[in-house]
Every structure is written in C-alpha cells, then in structure tokens.
UniProtKB/TrEMBL annotation, chains A, B:
Official protein name in the record: 3-dehydroquinate synthase
CDD domains: DHQS (cd08195)
Pathway annotation: Metabolic intermediate biosynthesis; chorismate biosynthesis; chorismate from D-erythrose 4-phosphate and phosphoenolpyruvate: step 2/7
Binding site for NAD(+): 115-119, 139-140, 152, 161
GO terms classed as biological process: amino acid biosynthetic process; aromatic amino acid family biosynthetic process; chorismate biosynthetic process
Record domain 3-dehydroquinate synthase C-terminal: where: 191-340
Record key words, sorted: Amino-acid biosynthesis, Aromatic amino acid biosynthesis, Cobalt, Cytoplasm, Lyase, Metal-binding, NAD, Nucleotide-binding, Zinc
Originating species: Rhizobium straminoryzae
InterPro entries to which the protein is assigned, alphabetical: Dehydroquinate_synthase, DHQ_synth_AroB, DHQ_synth_fam, DHQS/DOIS_N, DHQS_C
Annotated binding of Zn(2+), by residue: 194, 256, 275
EC number: 4.2.3.4
C-alpha cells in the first residue's frame, strides 16, 4: 500500500506457474503497445482477436494498428455484448475464425473486452488444436482484477453458468488502465466489488486502505493502478498455490455462492443485476450469515455493508430492481451451483474482515432460514 | 515377447503420469466387471455412458448391469456410428447429458466404443465442469492399442480432423479383448496397422514377432492380449516422455501424414478407407519415401509392404476403391495438416525397420515428385 505513492506508470505482476508462467502488465496506453509486448514474448506472428460491439469501436483499431506495426497478421470477430455471448454458437464461431486464419499452436487468440469475451476467447484458445497461445486484454475493472488472471475459461449452458470450459492460462495479460475511462460507472463499481473481495478474504489492511482511498481508485491514476496490481497479485498468489481449484482457490468464491444464485434467479438479466453487484450483495450476506452462525462479529458485517453502500453498490437482495426473488428460487439456484458435494453446501464464511475460510458442511436448512429472515426485512 | 506364453487372463499397463497416472487393464470379460474396477478407483458414484448404435446392442446392457451391481447410477447416450459423430452437435449432446445427470468432478463419463466414441466422450469429459473423470472402454483394436491411451481427445471441423479438442487423460482404461470378437475383419485389420506401427517405430523384434504370429493375434487368446499389451506399453512410454506432443510423441504419427491426407482426399468415407487402412498405406509410403531419399534400404520398405499385404491391408494408393486420387489433392491435404511449420513439412521418416525419426525439414517438392512417380505405377 505504501507504494501507492510510486509514480511509475506501469506495473508488472508475474504469475510463476512453471511452464505456464506469464506476466500481467498494468498501466495506461498498453493497447497501443500490444504488438511490441506480444512479439517480445510469443513466437507466432498471427493473431485472431475476439471483441464485442461496445469495445470494438473504442479500441479495436488501435489494437490492430499496433499489431500491424509489429508484423503480426490479425483477423477479428466482433460479437454481441453481454453474458449471452458466453454460449456454444459464439464459441464455435471463434474457433472457426481461428482455424480459417490458420492459427497454429504458437499463434494467439486475443481477448479484447470484459470477462465475457475473456472467458469465451480463452475457452476457444484452449481447444483450437488442443491449445494455442492466449493473450488477455481486459477492458473492464472486473476482468482486470479477476477473470483475466487464473486460467479459468468457460461458457454457460441451460444448466447454469460456466459449466463448460477448460483451464487454460494466458501467455500475457495487458491491463490498460486507461481503457477503464470509457467504462460506465455501474460497471466500474461492479468490478470494484471484486477488488474489495481481496481485502475481505485475507487482507484487512487493504480493505482499510480502500475504505479511505476508494474515491482515488475510482478517479484513476496511481491509486487505481495500485488497487489493480494488489488485486492481481492476490489472485495470482492463490492461483499459484492451487491452479486447479481443489483447495484454497475456493476462497475466491467469497460472496459468489449467493451471488451466482442471485444472477441465476434474475436470469442473468444485466438490467437487473451484473456479476459484481451479485458478488457485493453476496459478500454482505456471507458476512451476515457468518455473524448469525456466531463465527464473526455483526460489526464486521455492518462495516462491509457500509463501505459497499458508500461506493454505490447494492448490498441487499431488495436493492435488486424488478420483482421480488423468493427464497425458494434462491435455494434452488444454490443447490444447482457446482460447489455442492453430496448434499451439503460449501460456502466461504468468515471470522471477520480479512479472515475468510472454506466451510464445506453448511446445512442447507440454516441457509434457508437465514434467507427467509433476511427477506422479511 | 517371451511372455506370449503367459497364460494369465489379464494384463495391466500402468501409465505413470504423476497426478494423472492411470491403469490400463487388458483381458477378457472386463465389461462385465467394469463396475468393480471403477468403484475401486474413483470416488464418484454416477456415470454417463457414451456409445454408438453398433456397440450399444452388443455391450451396453452388460455394462449397465455391472455398474448397477456396484452401486453406480448410470445414464447413457447412443449416437450414430462413424466419423461424422466426432463433431460439435454430438459433443454438445454428450455435455448436456452429463450435466442433466448432474455429473460432478469425481463422477465419470464412460466411452464404450471405438476411437470415435473415445475421442468425443473424452473431449466432453475434459470440458464438463472444466474436467470430470473419464473411463475408456475401447471396443475396437485401434482404440485398444492407440486412441484410448494418451489423453488426446477431439472432434473434426470443416477445416480438418481433430482440430478442436483437449488433452484429458483417462482415469482408467478397460480393454476387453473379448469384445473384439464381434468386430468386422476389416476393422480388426485396420487396428492391426497401428499394432505393426509400434514395431516399425522402434521395436524391430516386435515387428519380426508379428510377422510370425499375426495369425494368432487375429485368432484371439494370449497372443492377442500380448500384442495389445505391448502396443499400449509402447504408446504409454512415449506419452509419459512427452505428454503434450512437443517432441518425441510425434513418432506416433508414422504413416499418419500420408494417411490423413488419404482420409481427407476420400472425404472420410469409410466405405473407401478407414483410418488404419490409411495408416497402413501411409507407413508403406513413409518407408518407400525414406528409401528414395537414401535414408533406408528399399528391402525394408518391401518387407513392410509384404507383411501388411499378408494380413490383408491395403498398401498402395491404388488399392483404395473408387475414383483415383490426384497428387494435387493429396498435396493440398498434406499442406492443410497441422504438422506444417513455416512452410516446410514435418514427416516421420525411417532408417529401417524399427528406426523411425522425426524429420522437420522435408521439402514439399520432394514429396510431390515422389507421389507423382508412385501414382504412375
Ligand atoms: N474466468 C474467471 O476466472 C472469471 C472470474 C470472474 C468473472 N468471470 C466472468 O466474467 C464475466 C463478467 O465480466 P465483465 O463484468 O467484464 O462483463 P462484460 O464482458 O459483459 O463487460 C461488461 C460490459 O462493459 C462493456 N465494456 C467492456 N469494456 C469496456 C470499456 N473499456 N468501455 C466501455 N464499455 C466496456 C462490455 O461491452 C459489456 O457491455 C462473467 O461472465 C463472469 O462469469 C470470469
Ligand atoms: N485420440 C487418439 O489418440 C487417437 C488415435 C488414433 C485414432 N483416433 C481416432 O479414432 C477414430 C477411429 O477409431 P475406430 O477405428 O475405433 O473407429 P470407430 O469408433 O468408428 O469404430 C469403427 C466401427 O466399429 C464399430 N464397432 C466398435 N466396436 C465394435 C465391436 N466390439 N463390435 C462390432 N462393431 C464395433 C463402430 O460402431 C464403428 O462402426 C478416428 O476418429 C481417429 O481420429 C484417435
Ligand atoms: Zn466474480
Ligand atoms: Zn492412428
């Protein structure tokens, strides 16, 4: 946190995954220098870019120009924006584009966009020729601090979110902090929920720093780059310890069991709820539920709620616009979630701010009565 | 080879891939005992079986019975037989079946069938929930000695064969040698081409043994199990050395560059050519081409041709029924093959029987004139 005063425009987080190690660069203007960063690291000289209709008009030309300058032959595919793009047909379209462009193992697929584009393009990169190179250029705060790091890729099916996918690490992540200037306030806030999450998992000092400095993070500049770098480092640390999510990595799901249930219950309708908003409400619920189970002080839950509210995030189920979400619907969605083992629920609970832990024996009945009480008011 | 006299009904080949290590059991009656073998090794008690319309009436009931006896809850999906089943729609159907049946990470997808079913089901097992357990029950000789070992999975696209897929190792392979009794002579012979391949790569003694004992291998019993076990061991050795095919594993492609080109040129029409037949012709061509390049003696090429002919395999391009295959069409197919790097061709060539090597600088022009001469007669 001291280094928030550091004025160097660019930060580097190295993810030491052996053969699959890679760098995350964080700083302004990285899109305009993508070509050089890629040619410095990858052997191939072909690229297939995947982006969406919101991002393409803003950044695609700059990226293509930079690639061309550095001798990379690139094709691109612009898909509709939104969660629905994480499905089979767009996946097949991306693979087809890459194969038509004769992308080989050392060439790359580039994701230019938010988590939706990153998850989709990463999945394609993992299966085209059983794996080609993958470059992430995340353009939302959420994707810069979360989805672009760690190698999880995937698409949704009628059975739920992210049910098909592979683990496929990127070879390079370029987090252009300037690109976040065109992001809506709402999307920025949603990504901020994941930033706060890292503090709540195991970095109480970072959470306290955010309580004081969140306005500077929203404004941009050094505090923003700092928050992104700390978040990436936090995620990278967990990923390196547990690449395939068999243990500790589950901590990253703090707020996500409730969050995913809320997303499912609102049919992934982004007008009602986006992922980070679900996580914000989910983190408040996880802290409140922990307090109810006498695991943590209710004061901590109140502090989490106060901070997320201050930045403008929803913190209550009733903050979600539209029709009410019955507890039954939420419980059903929770039961469908993949973190269910042999009937009992796995939840990330907490002993207080920065003291989260994995609980794999949470009785569904406790969750149900908690939700019922919460919903009553 | 000495152990061909060994009368134990069952053989075990262990594939020591660290965390991904697994056993291959080879012997009669394994389908009827699948339940016990699976419960002895995997934690999950759910299975989703993928099979095809030829295999289902022969073995599906026996498999389901055995699973039920051992307390495994199973669902199944029977797909059309043939290479066309290795495509996107069946892949999505398999994933959907597995998700409907709530297959979780420790549960398994079971492939009951030949290489088509194995490649498809393995791909699904690699992407459902980013990877669930996978059990191979190969029922063709080709799949028992080749496709079920090594973790390569995949489907075809309009751009070519196996262009989408993942590396996903099985957790168990059950090679029921008795199941081969219902296989057509032609399919058995096609699989035999891959058995002979292991001799030609680096086991001259095994090739000599096959020249003497092939009739016994075709007849069944100990010689068959022996040939399958040696083949699995040979493949496993290469896979362990080079799991992701960055080096030595390419030797397994002996005969396959030509073979794939022949398959592509005949539009994967199994009435004209099946994979192993393409490999048989391809191996003869590889030996002849090596002789032409003064790398090996023409006597070795003649010996390979004589043996494959003796077992009833095609050895000449002109052995393929139907219209002639112009050299231009074959060269085009070779250029499309994924083993092309920067314009030059990668081929597996040989210094003689059991002395194959990787040549990554074969001039396309040499291949072209060789094919032209060959085609003339
Ligand atoms: N793989 C992982 O580990 C992981 C982790 C967390 C979340 N996710 C996934 O990430 C997805 C959510 O990601 P997201 O929030 O980035 O959503 P998103 O990709 O849909 O982006 C949100 C919106 O912002 C727009 N946008 C993106 N960049 C912009 C920019 N610079 N300026 C203006 N508009 C811009 C997009 O077009 C879209 O409309 C979900 O599918 C979630 O499952 C994956
Ligand atoms: N993954 C790998 O490493 C690898 C290696 C080699 C080949 N392959 C793939 O394997 C496929 C070819 O495999 P295959 O030759 O087994 O083809 P296949 O699966 O199409 O089987 C051949 C035919 O035999 C039938 N059959 C299967 N078992 C039978 C039995 N016991 N009795 C009667 N009929 C039976 C099938 O229904 C089919 O009609 C190709 O797609 C090839 O690309 C993969
Ligand atoms: Zn998240
Ligand atoms: Zn083969």
């Amino acid at each position: 946190m001291n280094s928030a005063a550091d004025n160097s425009p660019e930060r580097l987080v190295h993810v030491p995954l052996g053969e699959r190690a890679y760098d995350i660069l964080i700083g302004p203007d990285l899109i305009a220098h993508a070509g050089g960063e890629i040619t410095a690291r990858l052997k191939g000289r072909k690229a297939a870019i995947v982006t969406d209709e919101h991002v393409a008009p803003l950044y695609l030309e700059a990226l293509m120009d930079s690639l061309q300058t550095d001798g990379i032959e690139a094709v691109s595919l612009t898909l509709p924006a939104g969660e629905k793009t994480k499905s089979v047909e767009p996946l097949v379209a991306v693979c087809d584009m890459a194969l038509s462009a004769r992308i080989e193992r050392n060439d790359c697929i580039i994701a230019l966009g938010g988590g939706v584009i990153g998850d989709l393009a990463g999945f394609a990169a993992g299966i085209v020729r059983r794996g080609v190179r993958f470059v992430q250029i995340p353009t939302t705060l959420l994707s810069q601090v979360d989805s672009s790091v760690g190698g999880k890729t995937g698409i949704n099916t009628r059975h739920g979110k992210n049910l098909l996918g592979v683990f496929h690490q990127p070879d390079l992540v370029l987090s252009d902090t300037g690109a976040l200037d065109t992001l809506s306030e709402r999307e920025f806030r949603a990504g901020y929920a994941e930033v706060a999450k890292y503090g709540l998992i195991d970095k109480p000092d970072f959470f306290a720093w955010l309580e004081k400095n969140w306005r500077a993070v929203f404004a941009g500049g050094a505090a923003r780059a700092e928050a992104i770098a700390i978040s990436c480092q936090a995620k990278a640390d967990v990923v390196v310890e547990d690449e395939r999510e068999t243990g500790r990595r589950a901590l990253l799901n703090l707020g996500h069991t409730f969050g995913h249930a809320l997303e499912a219950a609102t049919q992934y309708d982004s007008r009602r709820l986006v992922h980070g908003e679900g996580v914000a409400i989910g983190m408040v619920l996880a802290h409140r539920f922990s307090a109810r189970m006498n695991l943590a002080s209710p004061d901590d839950a109140a502090r989490v709620e106060a901070h997320l509210k201050a930045v403008g995030l929803p913190t209550l189920i009733s903050d979600i616009p539209g029709e009410a979400l019955p507890t039954e619907v939420l419980m059903n969605a929770i039961a469908q979630d993949k973190k269910v083992k042999g009937g009992q629920l796995t939840f990330i609970l907490t002993h207080g701010i920065g003291q989260s832990f994995i609980a794999d024996d949470v009785p569904a009945s406790e969750v149900q009565s908690f939700l019922e009480e919460t919903q009553k008011g």
